[in-house]
Amino acid sequence: MSSLNVESLQPLDVFGFYLPTLALWILLTFIPFFALRWVMRRSGLDRFVWHRPLFDVALFIVLLGGMIFSGVPRWL
Q: What distance in Å separates the CA atoms of residue 12 and residue 1, rounded to the nearest whole number?
């Protein structure tokens, strides 16, 4: 597990626009989030979820935290 360094939290310059790093992490998290939701719906696991929107928010936050602390894309 890699540690979170301060240099990775600097805003990114994209064609003159400064984007916070968290915005890019959020965009990258949508990929595994939608994949997991699709798998859960196809396998029927979502029928065990009591409150689907609340579960989706919690799943997204857990995935976002996992993505940030694992540091999957090192270039961010």
A: 24
H-helix or E-strand spanning residue 58: helix 52-70
- For residues 51 and 42, what is the distance between their CA atoms, to the nearest angstrom? 18
| Sole residue written with tokens 């939290």 | 9
User: Which single residue is written with the structure tokens 């396998």?
Assistant: 43
**pLDDT class for 74, splitting at 50, 70, 90?**
low
Which residue type, as a one-letter code, is found at position 74? R
| pLDDT tens digits, one per residue of 38-65 | 999 999 988 898 999 999 999 999 999 9
pTM reported for the whole predicted model:
0.71
Beta-bridged to residue 14, according to DSSP, are 17
